[in-house]
Write a structure and sequence with these properties.
The complex is a heterodimer of chains A (302) and B (156).
Chain A lengths: L1 H31 L4 H14 L1 H5 L14 E4 L2 E4 L16 H10 L14 H4 L4 H11 L13 E2 L7 H10 L13 H13 L3 H4 L42 H10 L10 H9 L6 H13 L8
Antiparallel strand pairs in A: 1-2, 2-3
Helix pairs in contact in A: 2-6, 4-6, 8-12, 10-12
Chain B lengths: L1 H56 L4 H17 L19 H4 L1 H23 L3 H22 L6
Helix pairs in contact in B: 1-2, 1-5, 2-4, 4-5
The chains are: A mainly alpha (302), B mainly alpha (156).
C-alpha cells in the first residue's frame, strides 16, 4: 500500500509538468492558428473605431502605416508613437494574445514596463477581450515594417517611467465597463463605442495638472486636445456644447465630417471621421449619438 | 476764387490719392480679402446646411442643385481672396502660413472641392437622391482635407 502512495507523490510534479507543457503547446498552437476571415473583418472594424492609424502612422512625413514615429505634442512633452506593425523586431510581431490584451487592459508592455497614458489604455481597458483579440488578429494581417522606434521627448519629471506607476495608481481603473441595467441596448453599445474603443474622452475631457481626466467635466471639452489643439464640448449644453444638434444630425455629422451648422468638424476630427466614424454602421453611429445626448449638460467653453 | 480753391484742393487730394494708392490698396485689399473670404465661407455653411439635409434624406431637387452650384461658384472666387500676407500672423484669420508655402497645392485642393460640388449639383439635377448623398459625402471630405491642412484654431 505504501508503494503506490510513494509513487503518486513522486509522480504529481511530473503530471503537473506534463500538464503545463501540454497547455503551453496548446497555447503556442493557438498563436499560430490563422485567424478566421470573420475575425479579421471584425478586427478591422474595431481598428477603425479605435483610430489606431491616426496616432501610429506618421502621415505628415508620409511614413508607412502603423510604423509609428508621429509626434504627439502634449503639455508634458512630445510623445513618439511606436511601431505596431507585425514586425518581430521593431513592431509587435512577437506579441501573444495575452501580451496584446495586457497592453490594452493594463497599459503594460510584454516586459512589464508601464506605458505612458498618451497611449489611451485608460479607455481601451474598457474593451472586451473578444474585441482585443479580433483587433490583434487584424493588425497581424497588415504589412510588417522594420522601422525602429524613436524615443519620447519629455521634460523632467515626466520622463521618469516609474512615475507612470504612481500616475496609474491615481488615475487608472483597469477593467471592462460595468453592465447597465437601466439603459437600453443602443445606449449601452454607444457608451462602449464612445468610452472604450472610440476613446473620445481622451481629447474631449479636460485634464488636471498631472494629466488625469477630470471626471466631473466628462466630455465638456479641453483646450489641450491632441497636438495642443482644443477639443470642443460635446455634452448636450445648448450654448457651449452640442445641445442644439438633433440626435440623428449628430450621427450624420460623425458619418460625413460636417456639423449641422454647415461647418467641417475640424482638424484632428477630420482624421477621426476619415479613418473611423465614416466607416461605422449607421446603427453604431446612432448608438454613439444616443449615449452622447444622454450625458449631463455641462456649461464649458474650452 | 473759392471755386478755384476747391478745385485745387480736390485736384491735390486726387493726386495724393493716386500717388499713395498702391501702398494703400495693398493694405486695404488684404484686409478686404480676409473679410470677403470669411463672408464667402460663412455663406458656404448656409448652403451646406441645405446639402446636409438633402444628403441625409437622399433628396435630389432644385434647391439641392442650387446650393451645390453656389458653393462651386464661390470656390472659384475663393482662391483670389488669399493674397500673400493675409494669413493668421497679420490678421484675425484662421488661414495658416502653409497656404503660401505651396500655393499651387492649396489651389489644387480648391479645384478638387469645386469639382466635388459640381458632382453634387449634377446628381441633384439627375434626380439621383443616393447620388446626392454619395457626392456630398465626398465633397464634405474634400472640405475637411483642406481645413485640416490649412485652417488653424479659431481665434478668440
Amino acid at each position: 500500500m505504501a508503494l503506490p502512495v510513494f509513487s503518486m507523490s513522486r509522480a504529481a510534479p511530473v503530471f503537473a509538468g506534463a500538464a503545463l507543457l501540454l497547455s503551453l503547446a496548446a497555447h503556442a498552437q493557438a498563436q499560430t492558428t490563422p485567424a478566421s476571415s470573420e475575425q479579421v473583418e471584425r478586427g478591422a472594424y474595431i481598428f477603425h473605431v479605435a483610430g489606431c492609424e491616426n496616432c501610429h502612422t506618421d502621415t505628415a512625413n508620409k511614413a508607412a502605416p502603423l510604423a509609428g514615429g508621429r509626434g504627439l505634442k502634449t503639455p508634458f512633452g512630445t510623445f513618439r508613437t511606436p511601431n505596431i506593425t507585425p514586425d518581430p523586431t521593431h513592431g509587435i510581431g512577437k506579441w501573444s494574445e495575452a501580451d496584446f490584451i495586457r497592453a490594452l487592459r493594463d497599459g503594460r508592455a510584454p516586459n512589464g514596463d508601464h506605458y505612458f497614458p498618451a497611449f489611451p489604455y485608460t479607455s481601451y481597458t474598457k474593451m472586451t477581450d473578444a474585441d482585443m483579440k479580433d483587433l490583434r488578429a487584424y493588425i497581424f494581417t497588415l504589412p510588417a515594417v522594420a522601422k525602429p522606434n524613436l524615443p519620447h521627448e519629455l521634460g523632467f519629471p515626466f520622463n521618469i517611467r516609474l512615475g507612470v506607476m504612481v500616475w496609474k495608481w491615481l488615475n487608472f481603473t483597469p477593467g471592462p465597463l460595468p453592465a447597465s441595467s437601466t439603459k437600453d441596448e443602443a445606449w449601452t453599445r454607444g457608451r462602449y463605442l464612445v468610452e472604450a474603443v472610440g476613446h473620445c474622452a481622451e481629447c474631449h475631457t479636460p485634464r488636471d495638472r498631472l494629466g488625469g481626466l477630470v471626471k466631473s467635466m466628462w466630455m465638456a471639452g479641453s483646450k489641450d486636445g491632441a497636438e495642443g489643439e482644443g477639443a470642443p464640448n460635446i455634452t448636450p449644453d445648448p450654448a457651449t456644447g452640442i445641445g442644439e444638434w438633433a440626435e440623428d444630425d449628430l450621427a450624420f455629422a460623425l458619418k460625413i465630417g460636417m456639423a449641422p451648422t454647415g461647418d467641417t468638424l475640424g482638424s484632428l476630427m477630420a482624421d477621426v471621421v476619415e479613418n473611423g466614424t465614416s466607416k461605422m454602421t449607421d446603427a453604431d453611429l446612432a448608438a454613439m449619438a444616443a449615449y452622447l445626448k444622454s450625458l449631463p449638460a455641462i456649461v464649458h467653453k474650452p | 476764387m473759392s471755386f478755384r480753391l476747391t478745385l485745387a484742393a480736390v485736384a491735390m487730394t486726387a493726386l495724393a490719392g493716386i500717388c499713395l494708392s498702391p501702398l494703400a490698396a495693398s493694405a486695404q485689399s488684404a484686409e478686404d480679402a480676409v473679410k470677403a473670404r470669411i463672408a464667402l465661407m460663412d455663406g458656404f455653411d448656409e448652403h451646406a446646411k441645405v446639402l446636409l439635409a438633402s444628403s441625409k434624406a437622399g433628396t435630389a431637387d432644385a434647391a439641392t442643385a442650387k446650393a451645390a452650384e453656389e458653393i462651386s461658384a464661390g470656390l472659384k472666387k475663393l482662391i483670389g481672396l488669399f493674397p500673400a500676407g493675409s494669413g493668421s500672423d497679420k490678421f484675425k484669420s484662421r488661414a495658416k502660413p502653409e497656404i503660401w508655402a505651396d500655393f499651387a497645392k492649396f489651389e489644387g485642393y480648391a479645384k478638387d472641392t469645386d469639382a466635388a460640388f459640381v458632382a453634387v449639383a449634377a446628381a441633384a439635377k439627375a434626380g439621383d437622391g443616393a447620388g446626392v448623398t454619395a457626392a456630398f459625402t465626398k465633397a464634405a471630405a474634400s472640405c475637411n482635407v483642406c481645413h485640416r491642412e490649412y485652417r488653424g484654431p479659431r481665434q478668440q
